[in-house]
Amino acid sequence: MTAFTQGHSDPTVQPVPASVVQQVDAADTTLHNPKRAVVALGANLGNRLETLQGAIDALEDTPGVRVKAVSPVYETEPWGVEPGSQPAYFNAVVLLKTTLPPSSLLERAHAIEEAFYRVRDERWGARTLDVDIVAYADVVDDDPQLTLPHPRAHERAFVLAPWHDVEPHAQVPGRGTVAELLDLVTLDGVAARKDLELHLPE
Ligand SMILES: Nc1ncnc2c1ncn2[C@@H]1O[C@H](COP(=O)(O)OP(=O)(O)OP(=O)(O)O)[C@@H](O)[C@H]1O
Ligand SMILES: Nc1nc2c(c(=O)[nH]1)N=C(CO)CN2
Predict the structure, then answer these.
(1) What is the ipTM of this complex?
(2) Is the CB of 158 under 6 A from ligand 2?
(3) Prediction pTM value
(4) No. of H helices and E strands in the chain?
(5) What is the DSSP string of 47-98?
(6) What keywords are annotated for this sequence in UniProt (predicted)?
């Protein structure tokens, strides 16, 4: 046996804090057990369709992320702002499988927004691209940095309608089924663009 493997007598070996062991274990579990995540995409500046497809391809290019389904495209009146004050949005929802933890998925979402020249000035301002994490597995968390499920998804027809198309029996954790929630919101100003299509990355 060498001096190194004598273990306990080696003064350079420090005990690993329990919190670090927990984090490593959690990361290891996620790595072997991909989670499902639901991501909403929106764009109301620039070439909206190209940008949404670019975002889908960028999600797929992310290590630890696989795009499993892409919804139809909806053209939607801007929600939460003065009518007529912004161009109409294109919205879509994608279903992912991911080994990334929620915080890393959000970082990646922000990086993709930036790659498409998203400018953050006013709340609910017009944007080239918005990438929101609508749900991550069954996680319910009120952290303002990353609230899960997304705090306004359950009242947004522009999220619920495309989500329902790709996952008709989905649940919004803590809120009910997407189908029930969709019945409670108006579909005025939310139109499927059947002439347009987003596709799964090749
Ligand atoms: N589920 C979530 N998905 C994305 N961002 C979230 C989420 N929960 C909290 N946030 C936080 O919200 C902040 C603002 O996000 P963003 O600029 O995309 O808001 P918005 O799209 O203008 O409005 P909304 O949040 O109503 O969709 C982000 O920096 C992020 O930290
Ligand atoms: N129709 C529509 N309205 C919005 C959207 C959006 O994606 N579509 N996103 C917003 C901020 O996330 C605010 N308002």
Answers:
(1) 0.98
(2) yes
(3) 0.87
(4) 5, 8
(5) SHHHHHHHHHHHHHTSTTEEEEEEPPPEEEPPSSS-TTSSPPEEEEEEEEEE
(6) ATP-binding, Folate biosynthesis, Kinase, Nucleotide-binding, Transferase
